[in-house]
Each structure stands twice: as structure tokens, then as C-alpha cells.
Design goal:
Elements: E1 4-10, E2 15-17, E3 35-38, E4 45-48, H1 50-61, E5 63-69, H2 70-76, E6 89-92, E7 108-111, H3 115-126, E8 130-134, H4 137-144, E9 150-155, E10 164-165, E11 173-175, E12 180-184, E13 187-198
Parallel strand pairs: 1-8, 1-9, 5-6, 5-8, 6-7
Antiparallel strand pairs: 2-10, 3-4, 9-13, 11-13, 12-13
Length: 200
């Protein structure tokens, strides 16, 4: 059964990157252990603690597609046509890039129908595997539309002071009690079920 969830590393004050879209020290946990985890990109590999490696491998083993916004797509240049987890990527945008061409770019879909249409496309691509929705505007839209089953947070012991928030505002929400809580070097992995109703 497909689970649709948002996921990101977050600072203690709720940000996933600084004002210039740089995660900085938030990503320190990716290099704090002795378990090597490779990705589909030769330039991207991690050295994780055993707890983080087990958590990440379990998550990515069930991942079938990603949903991201145009901002993240542009910041990463679409991961040069191949996301590190080597799954299809659905980009929510009003205008697909006209001059973006990399090998593998056929694995990127550009959807102009809003968050519901994007998640529907991602579910189609994922089959019975999970769909991960980027934090920020896209994650917030998915939450408020009632399309998220879970919120996953890799909580880093970092205070950024300002930056790009995990959620961008809107209605307050009460999530369920965490179903996963793993504390390890430079990160605490948390998974919260979405209760399905806003508060207030």
C-alpha cells in the first residue's frame, strides 16, 4: 500500500535551508558514521551511523516517486537528470523548462494541475511503492489538501534563525504521536502520522 509523506532535514527552529537555499550544517548527519551508503549519483555518498543507515535504507527501499516544487528543481538543476535515489520525479510548475536536457530527463514529469494532480501522477509512477513530497510550499499544500499520510522529519541540532521553513504557514495542524523516534549522531529521525484534520 502506498504511503504519501513529506520528508526533510529540519533545524530546531523549523527551517530546511537558509535564506540562500543552503542546508549547511543541517546535513552534517550524512557524514557522521562509518556505514557507507551510495546513491545513483557518483558524487553523492553518505557515511552514516548504523541507526541512520538502517532508517534511510528502509525508507528508500520503499520509495517509488518524488514530488517537488519548481524552486527545488531549479536550485538542484533537476539533479542533472537523475535524482540520487534514482526514482521518477514529478515537478509542480506552471511552466516546464524549455532548455533543460540531461540524460535521464525523461524520468521527470512537469505537472501544471496543482498538488493533487502531481501526487496522482506520482502515485501512478510509483505503483505500490511510496511517494515522498518535498517540504516547503509543496509539502504545505499537500498537508492542507489532506493528501499526506505522514510527516517525516530528520531533526538536526541546529538553529538557523531564518530561512526556508518546513511548512510555510496556513492552518494549524495536530499530528499523531510519533511512530518512529530514532536518536543518533547529529540527528533525530521522527515519523508522525497525519491525523487528517486541521485544528482551529
Amino acid at each position: 500500500m502506498t504511503t504519501v509523506y513529506s520528508s526533510a532535514t529540519m533545524s530546531l527552529d523549523g527551517f530546511v535551508a537558509d535564506d540562500d537555499d543552503d542546508p549547511g550544517a543541517l546535513f552534517d548527519w550524512y557524514q557522521t558514521g562509518d556505514i557507507e551508503v551510495s546513491t545513483a549519483m557518483e558524487s553523492v555518498h553518505f557515511r552514516l551511523t548504523q541507526h541512520s543507515a538502517d532508517y534511510l535504507r528502509e525508507q528508500t527501499a520503499h520509495l517509488g516517486a518524488l514530488v517537488v516544487g519548481r524552486r527545488l528543481f531549479d536550485v538542484t538543476d533537476g539533479w542533472a537528470g537523475r535524482h540520487p535515489w534514482d526514482v521518477p520525479v514529478v515537478v509542480v510548475t506552471h511552466e516546464a523548462p524549455a532548455d533543460w536536457h540531461y540524460p535521464g530527463s525523461e524520468n521527470f514529469s512537469f505537472v501544471d494541475g496543482g498538488i493533487a494532480a502531481a501526487i496522482a501522477k506520482a502515485r501512478e509512477l510509483a505503483g505500490d511503492r511510496d511517494v515522498s513530497v518535498a517540504a516547503g510550499e509543496i509539502g504545505t499544500q499537500a498537508l492542507e489538501a489532506g493528501l499526506l499520510d505522514e510527516v517525516r522529519i530528520d531533526l538536526a541540532p541546529v538553529v538557523l534563525g531564518s530561512g526556508r521553513p518546513y511548512f510555510t504557514g496556513g492552518r494549524p495542524w495536530m499530528l499523531g504521536e510519533p511512530t518512529t523516534l530514532i536518536q543518533t549522531a547529529r540527528v533525530t529521525h521522527l515519523v508522525f502520522p497525519v491525523a487528517g484534520a486541521a485544528t482551529g
